[in-house]
Amino acid sequence: MEWSDIAAFAFVASLLVISPGPNGVLIARTVPTSGRRAGFANVAGFVTAFYLHGALSVLGISILLVQSATVFAIVKYLGAAYLCWIGVKALYSAYKGFEAPKKVTPAKRQRTLRKAYGEGLLTNALNPKVSMFYLAAFPQFISVGETSMLSSFLLVSVHSILNALWFGAMVVLFASLTAMARNGAFQRRLQAVTGVVFIGFGWKLASYRPNV
Description:
mainly alpha
């Protein structure tokens, strides 16, 4: 694989990384209430999910998601349901906050690192669009005759590094705004926006139709 191919893939992947999506919203929701370490645990979950999708793509299992309408629909609706569930929980938290604004105590709602990691993992693992991106991208950047497994995981690593850098910077940014972010009114607004956005992403994923 030529360096030009890697650079071209990095450019395409970076556009995908920085585009608005549930990962950024999850970081914005996690860090103010649970701290920087939980935010980095989210990011670790993202990266693990990318390698999972990469492995599925290399093994050819992801092709089944594209060619089988039933399997694709199952994975898609599971992912949509998970995103909507996060959104409903966030809206409920915002509603409880409005009922008792003086009792907003983010420390009592801190996520464990395991839970934060799991949220990051599931948010991406249940999104079949990641596998579809790899299936579409790999043939474009891997030349015939190359060791496809090594080349594929090299591209997955590039994608993962870009994600870690972008969302790691986002974690640091939100952590630096902790004092403001832990304000009760800010928290309630953030939870409300998070809920609406996650439900919106869930609806968008549920209505997604692959171009195959």
